[in-house]
Design a protein that fits this description.
The complex is a heterodimer of chains A (236) and B (317).
Chain A: H1 3-14, H2 23-38, H3 42-70, H4 72-77, H5 80-84, H6 91-120, H7 123-150, H8 154-172, H9 181-192, H10 204-227
Helix pairs in contact in A: 1-6, 2-3, 2-6, 3-6, 3-7, 3-8, 6-7, 6-10, 7-8, 7-9, 7-10, 9-10
Chain B: H1 2-9, E1 18-27, E2 30-40, E3 43-48, H2 55-62, E4 70-75, E5 78-79, E6 90-93, H3 105-115, H4 121-131, H5 147-159, E7 165-168, H6 177-192, E8 196-201, H7 204-210, E9 213-218, E10 221-227, H8 228-236, E11 240-246, H9 249-257, E12 262-268, E13 271-276, H10 279-293, E14 297-303, H11 307-316
Parallel strand pairs in B: 3-8, 3-9, 6-7, 7-8
Antiparallel strand pairs in B: 1-2, 1-4, 4-5, 9-10, 11-13, 11-14, 12-13
Helix pairs in contact in B: 1-6, 3-4, 3-5, 4-5, 9-10
Classes of the chains: A mainly alpha (236), B alpha/beta (317).
Chain lengths: 236, 317
C-alpha cells in the first residue's frame, strides 16, 4: 500500500465525518427488509427503494462525503502541504486518493444494494446493482475529487449537482438525464441484469462511454489543478 | 545535544542557492509583494517584517505554493513553481499549525520519509526526531501535543530528507523559552553545516539571536537587507519620540535642549514632545536633569515604538 493511500485511509476513517456514511445504507437495508417481510409486491417497492433511495441518494451522497473528504479535508485543515512538499509527480497523489474514495464508496453502497437487490428480485440483480454502482462511484469520486480542487465549497457544489441536476431537472427535463451519473448506473445495471424494476433513460454504450470520459476527464483535471495548487494568501 | 552537534557539524556535500528576481505578487488590486530580488545562500537568514508585510506570501512563492505574478523564483536555476522535484532539496515548515493529529509523531515523520522515497525511512525518521528532541513523545498521537511540540514534529518532518534549503514561517510562534532556545541552536547548527535556512519573524529579538543576515520586508517591499548589526544600528539610531509631562514643562524643555542626546523639543498645552537620538542616553539623562531643576516628571511615554514604525523609518531611510 502506498504511503499516500495509507495516510488517506487513516484520515478518512479517523474523522468523525466518516460516521455519516453509516445511517443511509442502514435505512436502505431496513426498508427492503420491511417491504419484503410485509409481502409488498417487488414491482411496487423495487423502483422507489432500489433507484429512488439506493442509486439516487445513497450512492451519490456516500460518494460525495468520501470523494470530497479524501483531498478536500486535507486542503481545509492545511495538512495537504505535507504531501505536496514531496518530490512526487502529482498523479501519484491523485490516483491513490481516487482509488481510496472509489473503493470506500463502492464498498459502502455494495452491501445494502446487494441485500436490497436480492430481496427485490435475484442475486443477479443484487450483484449487477453493486457492479454498476462501483462504476458510478468511480465517476462520482473523480468528479467530487476534482471539485475539491477547483472550488472552496465542493460539498455544496456536489449537492447542487446531485439534488438539482440529477434529482430535480432529471425528473422534468429529459435531456439532462444524458449527463447524469445516476442514469448511467441504471442503464449499466439493467444491461447486466435485465428486469422490469429498472428503466434506463440512456443507452448502454452512451452510459459506458460517458462514465469512462467523466472518470478520466475529471481525474486529469484534478492532477492538473494539484500541480498548480496555491496556498491561500492569508496575510500575516 | 551531543547527537545534534555531531549530525550538524558533518560537512554538507552540496549547497543550494535560492534566487528571487524581481518577484511581485498581487491579488486583484492589492500588491502583497512588490519587486523583491534576493539571493539566499548557505547560512541562516532572517526574514523580518511586521504582520501583513508579505513575508508569508514571499515564503509561499519560494516554496512553490504560489505563482509569482511577475519575476522568477529559482532554486539552483530551476523554478520552484509547478516543479515537485525541487522538494528533494527543499523543506518547508508552514506557519499554519496543520498536522495529521491522528498520527503519532513517529508515524508522521516516517510517512514523510517514505514519501521522499528515502533508502532507509525508519533510520531517517529516528534521526529527524532526535534532531528536534522529540524521542520521548514520538509514540503519542500528535493530537495530544502542545503547540511547541507540534511545531517540532513538523520541523522533523521537513528535515527528514536532510534538505539543502529549509524555509520556516514564524517557527518560534507558540514555543516556550527552552524550546525556542533549542530551535535557535538547531537552526544555527544547520546553517553552520552549509544549509540555506530562511525563517520569518515579526520579532526583532528572535532574528537578532539566530541570524547574522536579515532581509527586512515592509509593506511588500524589501526595505533593507544585509548584516543584522548594521540594520540594528540603523534602527537604534533613529530618532525616538517621547511624550513628557511634568510640573514645569517649560523649564524642563530648556534644560533638555542642552542635552546632547536630545535633538528636538516641542512644547504645547498637553506637555512636551521630545525627540532623542539615543534612546538609552536620553532615558538616563531625563531623571538627572529633572532633579537638578527641581521638576517632577509625571509621565514619560515612548511614542510610536511599534515595529511597524521602526520598519517604516527604515523604508524612508
Amino acid at each position: 500500500m502506498s504511503t499516500v493511500t495509507w495516510i488517506t485511509a487513516r484520515g478518512l476513517f479517523g474523522r468523525r465525518r466518516f460516521l455519516m456514511l453509516l445511517p443511509l445504507p442502514a435505512v436502505l437495508v431496513g426498508l427492503a427488509v420491511l417491504c419484503r417481510s410485509l409481502g409488498v409486491d417487488p414491482a411496487e417497492w423495487g423502483p422507489p427503494v432500489l433507484v429512488g433511495l439506493g442509486l439516487a441518494v445513497v450512492l451519490p451522497v456516500v460518494s460525495l462525503v468520501v470523494g470530497t473528504g479524501v483531498l478536500g479535508a486535507e486542503i481545509d485543515d492545511g495538512t495537504v502541504v505535507h504531501v505536496l512538499t514531496k518530490p512526487l509527480p502529482r498523479w501519484q497523489i491523485v490516483l491513490p486518493k481516487l482509488a481510496v474514495a472509489t473503493g470506500v464508496s463502492a464498498a459502502t453502497i455494495a452491501v445494502p444494494i446487494v441485500v436490497a437487490g436480492v430481496l427485490a428480485d435475484s442475486v443477479r440483480l443484487g450483484v449487477a446493482l453493486a457492479a454498476a454502482s462501483a462504476l458510478g462511484a468511480l465517476a462520482y469520486s473523480a468528479l467530487f475529487l476534482a471539485l475539491s480542487l477547483v472550488t472552496r465549497r465542493p460539498v455544496l457544489l456536489g449537492l447542487v449537482y446531485v439534488l438539482i441536476w440529477e434529482g430535480l431537472l432529471g425528473r422534468f427535463v429529459s435531456g439532462t438525464k444524458v449527463l447524469s451519473v445516476q442514469q448511467w448506473v441504471i442503464a449499466l445495471a439493467d444491461r447486466l441484469a435485465p428486469t422490469d424494476l429498472l428503466t434506463g433513460a440512456v443507452s448502454v454504450p452512451v452510459a459506458a462511454v460517458l462514465t469512462a470520459l467523466v472518470a478520466v476527464g475529471f481525474t486529469a483535471l484534478a492532477i492538473d489543478r494539484l500541480r498548480s495548487f496555491s496556498v491561500a494568501g492569508e496575510t500575516s | 545535544m551531543t547527537t545534534l552537534s555531531a549530525e550538524a557539524t558533518a560537512p554538507a556535500v552540496t549547497t543550494s542557492t535560492l534566487a528571487l528576481a524581481g518577484v511581485s505578487r498581487w491579488y486583484g488590486n492589492v500588491v502583497a509583494v512588490n519587486d523583491v530580488s534576493m539571493r539566499l545562500g548557505p547560512g541562516v537568514t532572517g526574514l523580518l517584517g511586521p504582520n501583513g508585510a508579505g513575508k508569508t506570501t514571499l515564503l509561499h512563492m519560494m516554496a512553490g505554493f504560489l505563482a509569482p505574478s511577475r519575476g522568477t523564483v529559482t532554486l539552483d536555476g530551476e523554478p520552484t513553481w509547478r516543479n515537485p522535484p525541487v522538494y528533494r532539496r527543499l523543506g518547508l515548515v508552514s506557519e499554519r499549525e496543520a498536522v495529521h493529529t491522528f498520527l503519532t509523531a513517529y508515524e508522521f515523520v516516517l510517512a514523510s520519509a517514505k514519501l521522499h522515497r528515502l533508502p532507509d525511512p525508519a533510520a531517517a525518521a529516528r534521526r529527524a526526531i532526535a534532531l528536534v528532541e522529540l524521542e520521548g513523545a514520538q509514540d503519542r498521537r500528535i493530537g495530544t501535543y502542545s503547540k511547541g511540540m507540534r511545531q517540532r514534529a513538523r520541523v522533523a518532518a521537513a528535515l527528514v530528507h536532510d534538505p539543502q534549503v529549509l524555509l520556516l514561517d514564524e517557527p518560534f510562534n507558540g514555543m516556550d523559552p527552552r524550546q525556542r532556545l533549542h530551535m535557535m541552536t538547531l537552526l544555527h547548527s544547520l546553517g553552520d553545516a552549509g544549509r540555506t535556512i530562511l525563517f520569518s519573524s515579526h520579532i526583532l529579538e528572535e532574528v537578532e539571536q539566530v541570524s547574522g543576515t536579515v532581509q527586512v520586508m515592509v509593506a511588500g517591499r524589501l526595505a533593507a537587507s544585509g548584516d543584522f548589526r548594521t540594520i540594528r544600528r540603523l534602527m537604534t539610531n533613529r530618532p525616538h519620540v517621547f511624550a513628557v509631562r511634568s510640573t514645569d514643562d517649560r523649564a524642563l524643555a530648556v534644560a533638555l535642549m542642552a542635552e546632547p542626546s536630545v535633538t528636538g523639543v516641542e512644547l504645547d498645552r498637553t506637555g512636551l514632545t521630545v525627540k532623542a537620538g539615543d534612546y538609552g542616553a536620553f532615558t538616563r539623562a531625563l531623571p538627572k536633569v529633572a532633579l537638578a531643576r527641581g521638576v517632577r516628571v509625571r509621565q514619560l511615554l515612548p511614542e510610536d515604538e511599534s515595529l511597524e514604525s521602526v520598519f517604516s523609518y527604515l523604508l524612508e531611510g
